[in-house]
Amino acid sequence: MESIRDSGELIPGTLEMLILKALYRGPQHGYAVAEWIQGTSQQVLKVEEGALYPALHRMELRGLLKAKWGASENNRRAKFYELTTEGHKQLQSESRRWARLSSAVAFVMQAS
Amino acid sequence: MKHRLHEFLLRLRALFVRRRLEREMADELAFHQAMLQDKLMRQGASPDEAQRSARLRFGDGRRWHERLRELWQFRWLENMRRDVTYSVRVLRRSPGFTAVAILTLALGVGANTSVFSIVNGLLLRPLPVPESDRLVVLEMLRGFPDPVEGFSEPMFRALENRHDSFSEVFATFQTEAEIKGENGTEPARIELVSGDFFAGLRTPPLMGRILTRADDQKGGNPNGFAIVISEGFWQRWFNRAPGVIGQKLHLDNVLFTVVGVMPKRFIGEDPLQRPEIFVPLAAEPAMDGERNLTTAGLNAWWMNIMARLQPGVTMEQANAQLAAESGPVLRQLNANGAWISQREKEHFRLQAESGSTGYTFTRQLFRKPLIAVFAMCGGVLLLACLNLASLLMARGAARQKELATRLSMGATRRRLVQQLLTESLLISAAGTVVGLALAPWVGQSLSALLFAGQFETNLDTNLDIRVFAFAAAVSILATIIVGLVPALQATSSGLNEQMKQGQHTTQAHERHRVLPKIMMAFEVALALMLVVGAGLLTSSLVKLYRSGAGFDPRGLYSIAFSMDHQSKRGEALMQFYQEVGEELRRQPGVRTVSWQWVVPLAHMTWDRQYYAPGGKEEDVHENAIAPDYFKAMRLPVLGGRDFRWDDRSSSGEKVILNRTAANLLFPGRNAVGQTINRKDQSEVASLEVIGVVGDAKYEDVRSAAPPTLYHAMTQGDKEQSPSFNAVVRVEGPATGLANAARSIVLKIDSAIPAPKVSSMETLVDESLSAERTMALISGFFALCALMVTAIGLYGTLAYATARRTTEIGIRMALGAKRAQVARMVFAQNSAVALAGAAGGLGCALFGSKLLASFLYGTSERDPWIFAGSILMLALIASAASLLPALRAARIEPMRAIRCE
């Protein structure tokens, strides 16, 4: 139905996988997800808010995430996202796919 | 799949918690913004700076919001909401068009739904009893083309105990009875029912018990005659007294005991009647006295028989069984051999027909007119839809620029069709709602009109599930016709081209458009058919009125005296009538008074076989009358003399024939002074013809006057009841007649029920009510059709011409005369109207055959009516085309060209 694929500076299609990975460690709000991706990638991957939130909501609609309102670390009301079983499964298959894909790309690029 | 379902459910939920969802989205974004601000401040920015750069990074919050919101919405729902708002705006911009469109549809849907609700009430609605689909109506085939439903008592008793295919067989007869109350007698509608009536209809009583076989015995059950009353009568007569069971009632001077009360929903077997009292069939001889129908045996055919099929027995099996039993039933009757062989010659056979909708005489009478009205009504609705469709098409053409603009802005054709459909959907929905709101009211007045004066009827025309389903089907169909065709047409290919090239290209396009023309031609054809139908029916009605009743009904009144339950007979009775007649003659304005037994046109028939010596037996209608009868009726005496009060039985039986009877029995001879004979059981009666009079209609106005024979009431006849009707010729108003008759009777004997006065003029009107209503309704429909067609022809031409303004301007600038322009525009519609009229003529020639059975003295291909209808349509079409043509002729070339 929806086909908005706004991936910012990311390689198309990877944002959802990164979000899944970010949430693998436990429930987080949107801001923390963006910060974690940015920090872990050594500031290489920049997550645009304009892409982040539609992606989060889309994943919630598809049942990969579920959302809950709670208090943030500085005691503000925030929306926390969490992986569902469906989300965990999705993360597994996505990371397998990514591993295959990236090694294949590296293989090609290293060829002389 | 699973994802889709999850998405669907969440979106569905979102519909209901929309406000909360919006707030949460705002909160989430605000939180993100605050966190960002904190981070910037931690990095050393001032609060102001942090706020500014955070906002800069975020851009417009509303855009965000919109994107998230879209995720949570059903797109189609949102589109629909937008279409509806847009359509409402468009429709409101042309309120005139919208109002006409809605009103046209409302009339179409309202009229159809209300006619259908009558059809439903009369022909389709099942009886409100359990398992009504197992009920059947019994009929006899006896030589007539149509089956006969009136049975005689001995025949019913022979059938009552045959349980091979029926669990219950029961007979009914509706009539009136006089109840003795505290202040004189009052009439009540009663129904004579046989023992298994209530068992067959399976409805438990509200109070007390139902009537059974034990009550339907000679003399009633051991405690006398029992009756069951309706809830309505319990209210009216007993004021809902709880102790009603066991109360006594005098009906026609017979004592009855109330044993039960039936609930309101129980209406018996006739959907049109609401009997107040149910009386055992076996009480009929006691109530009707010496002239009762039961003792008349095989000479009286009066009751209707219904039955309930045994479980598991099909209609076919029951019919096979009945066919096999027909012979044995005949031989079981206590009849002479001649009678039985006569029936066998007629191929007498019993058969069953579905009785799930009950039995009503009215149905036979109104089935055909009702279906004809229904068909006309459908025609008008179709016309209304076609008309709206062509108007919408014309509008679509005028809106092509708007549509092309939207198409070029990225809207798909599908979206445009959806939006245009929404527009027509709105129109048809509004039309349907208004129409449905009107339907019960229109239905009531229509059924009142249709059954006017015919019977006291209680047709249930309420809107039930069937009516709603019908209305829904009608409006869906209307929407499709009204909406889809114009929408597809308006968005057809080539729109972009038109956008690019302005208005000019559309003109060639416009002129070659055939669909709207075909639709308009179709409209004209339909309208012509309706006008022809109305013309034929009206001409038939006029002919009926002109043919008249034979007698002069104006200023003629009939006063019914009910003497069946009085003791006066013979000489005393004649004395009474002579006395009352003299008193009546003294009333102001009264010119002539006489008496008759059978009131013409009141659906009563008295006939026997007569023959001239040596001639063959002929069926002759009869009546018993007093002297001065022909003077009162204004029937000419063609030969011989009138009766005298001193014509008694002792002086030999004398009769007067009407012209038809005289010609039939004595062709080419003078009937006066001749003798005619009638075979009674064993002897032959000889009657002397003393006069010949003019013809008068007998059963109804439609049928020609039958051969009729008049007896002198003073000479008595065993078939004649003691209740006669005064025939009073009045000059001027007859308002005091009823009171005068009552006081005259009271002076003589207070036990005699108040006489009933009726106007013969009204009777003639009523006997033509079906014809009159048909003519009235078809005339109304034809008028609607003409109006709708005129609007359609005018509207489409006006639109088309408006769009050709520039072209016409150029033509004129190049030297075209104004008259030429007018002719050109006018010719467009003439072609359409001509084609439509030709098609309509063909269809009308075929279709009018269906009306043939309703027509009196009018050929279904009456050339005058056809020519007149075509002329009328031509006039209407010309009038509708004239205005646009004149407007086109008045175009100023320079202004028209510049306006592009």
Can you give a write-up of this model?
The complex is a heterodimer of chains A (112) and B (900). With 112 residues, chain A is of the alpha+beta class. Helix content of chain A is 54%, strand content 14%. In chain A, helix 1 (15-23) crosses helix 2 (30-40). The longest helix of chain A is centred in the last third of the chain and has 26 residues, at 85-110. Chain A starts with 14 loop residues before the first helix and ends with a helix. With 900 residues, chain B is α+β, with helices and mostly antiparallel strands. Chain B is built from 29 helices and 21 strands. In chain B, strands 1, 2, 3, 4, 5, 6, 7, 8, 9 and 10 form a 10-stranded mixed sheet that branches. In chain B, a hairpin with a 4-residue loop joins strand 17 and strand 18. In chain B, helix 2 crosses helix 4 (61-72) and helix 13 (361-398) runs parallel beside helix 16 (465-490). The two termini of chain B are 55 Å apart. Mean pLDDT of chain B is 85; it is low at 503-508. Classes of the chains: A alpha+beta (112), B alpha+beta (900). The A-B interface holds A 1-2, 4, 29-31, 49-50, 53-54, 57-58, 60-63, 69, 72, 74, 76-79, 86 and B 2-4, 6-7, 10-11, 24, 27-29, 31-32, 34-36, 38, 57-59, 64, 67-68, 70-72, 75.
